[in-house]
Amino acid sequence: MSGQANALSDEKLVEVIVPAYNVADFLPRCVDSLLGQTCRSIRIWLVDDGSTDGCPAICDNYALRDRRVVVIHKENGGLSSARNAALDKILSLAPIERGKFIACVDSDDWVEPDYVEFLLNLIEATGADVAQCGHYIDFSDTRGVEKDKDHSVRILSGENAIESLLRNGPYDVTAWNKLYRTQVLEDIRYPEGMSYEDTATAHLIAEQAGSVAVCMEPKYHYVQRYGSIANGTTWKDSKYDLVRAGDEMAAWVCARYPGLEGAALEKRVFVRLSTLAHMVNTCYSDKRRIREMRRFIVRGAGPLLADPKASKRDKLGTILVVPGFWLFRVVWK
Fold first, then answer.
1. What digits encode the pLDDT tens for the residues 138-186?
2. Helix locations, the chain, DSSP H
């Protein structure tokens, strides 16, 4: 580890975790946007996850330039492993030396100058344990779309936040648009060797939180990179991790929150519709998997279509799948 995890006396110190793997073309913009925050009391943990490009040198140079930057060099283990490495370092510090808040930022994204201040103010104003802002989806340097234009402040209980996760509501599974009180993450680690790690942990975090606050004013720029797992143009079997993570979330919820069984079914259907859509996007076909996913959706079609809370998107996808995958494929294309 290069740089020092210096104790900063400000009680509002925010620890920002930035995993980096072979993103030398994007990393400087990300780090510069963090160093330029209106909230100066931040410590940035750059986790070089065994990069083979210029990332290690970029990380070390930032640590030399600014004492708020700490670098962790480690063998490649994936995004979960990198986040966990930083969490372990932060939580190994004496309570007086570590920040009261933690944020996660992906190294190919960037943030508005008041990203941290906005989330910190939202937590302080509401007393919530987790705060979430909105984001732009950046398709290029000149083209971006605001995710949600409803900027009202919503405060959700832990159970309501879990329902939102299941139904893809305003409080979502992503880690990077949130600020957490440090104690919320003390017992949370991301599953290593598995993609869609945010989906695999979001419900556990929501349960740890007494309440969450959501204001979708956009402060984060989510950059669409088509080499990524979620947006790639080539099929990767890691997409099946989304189905696994969604099913595990749904099973966990059904065991603890019987009143959310309908929402849990919607999550199970959604992850399958998303996977089928990605197959269409990448011109990939796995007849056995398609059959399994379609069979599940058909079995759940009745309850889902009768659920007044289920989204129109998931209902439409279900209606298209029931006659056969061929219809879903034609319409989706």
1. 987 777 899 899 999 999 999 999 999 999 999 999 999 999 999 999 9
2. 27-35, 55-65, 79-92, 115-126, 158-166, 197-208, 240-256, 261-281, 287-306, 312-321, 325-332
